[in-house]
Specification:
Blueprint: H1 2-8, H2 30-37, H3 46-54, E1 61-62, E2 68-69, H4 72-87, H5 92-104, E3 131-132, H6 134-141, H7 145-153, E4 165-166, H8 169-181, H9 186-206, H10 208-212, H11 216-249
Antiparallel strand pairs: 1-2, 3-4
Amino acid sequence: MGEATQHLHSHDPEQVSWPFDVSHEPTLKIGEVKEILSAEFPMLNVSKIRYLENIDLVIPHRTSSNQRLFSRADVERLRFILTEQRDRYLPLSQIGELLSQLDSGRAGEGHPGRMRAVEHDDVPRPKPGTRLTKAEVSELTGVAVEDIEELARLGVVEVDPRGRLTSHAVDIVRYSQMITDLGLDLRNIRAVKNSAHNHATMITTALAAQLAKQSPVARERAFAQGNEMSALVVKLYQALLVENIEVELD
């Protein structure tokens, strides 16, 4: 996307990138952008935003002192990228093509005409990297503490030496409860956990060369590639799972 995107995404009022009906005035620092989007995308960090800038998917304004300043339109653009990645499992290269279509007005009916910058979310979510007690996870999910303890006993959720869980435990507990409500046994969820661990090892092994470089850019690239790989593995697993169910029920 490089040069063409850079041209479209300049802050010349005559040439602005999508979305067109949101302010392109650069007023937000990178930390403020992360804060605006963190409720919807709790795993988002500054490194990811910088990486998306490095590959020209979003190009913030640079001040005379080289500080990044983002506009509300940039926030919308980031929100679109992250949503496409999370909900449709699209690789960044394909998202770049979609953005090019939006920038040029060639987007199909499936693309939004406007996206809303979210500053608050009614659903409380822990920040990435935080540690939670079982009682806190229970409060966030509505799942009883004893049920969370059973998930911990089975190894479905990770518990540190102080008895705390990761921020991911909220989603793990919530989905586990939904699955058991449909009649599956908790021991079956343990098998899913083992499969996730094996696939995580596969992905981190594939990224070992990038991680060995020890540079911030290389680690950002590895983080983004890891997200793409995991999304593709999820999509593949879903297709294989549905296929196997259809064969078994046929």
